Amino acid sequence: MKRAITLKLPKTTSNRHVDPDNPPWSEEMLGSPVLKRGRGPQKSPTKVLTTVRLDADVMAFFKSQGRGYQTRINEELRKVVARGLTTGSRRTQKRAA
Questions:
Q1: Residue 56 phi, psi dihedral angles, 5° rounding
Q2: Residue 76 exposed, middle or buried by CB count within 10 Å (0-12, 13-18, 19+)
Q3: What is the pTM of this model?
Q4: Residue 46 confidence (pLDDT) above 90
Q5: CB atoms inside a 10 Å sphere around CB 79
Q6: Which whole-number Å values give the CA distances from 8 to 11, 12, 15, 52, 90, in the listed order?
Q7: Where are the domains of the chain?
Q8: What are the φ/ψ torsions at residue 88 (nearest 5 degrees)?
C-alpha cells in the first residue's frame, strides 16, 4: 500500500511585534549605498595603465618567480632603456631619419 505524502506549509507566527528599543532598519537609516572597488587613484600617478601582448613562455617565466612579476618585467625593461634602446629600435630610427 502506498503512503500519501503531503507537504505542510511552514507555521506563521502572528505574535510578531516591533521592539521599540531595537526598531527595524529603514532606508533613511541605511543611507545611500557605497561601492568600493579596487585600490582607488594613486597618490602621485607615476605609472601608465597599458596593455602589452607578451609571449606565454615569457609570462610563465616571470610568474614562476612569485609575486611582483609586473614589477620585475618593468625593471628588465628599464635595464634595456638604460642600455640605450634595442637594436630593432635603432633600425627604425635610421629609416625615419
A1: -60, -35
A2: exposed
A3: 0.44
A4: no
A5: 8
A6: 9, 12, 20, 61, 82
A7: 48-97
A8: -65, -35
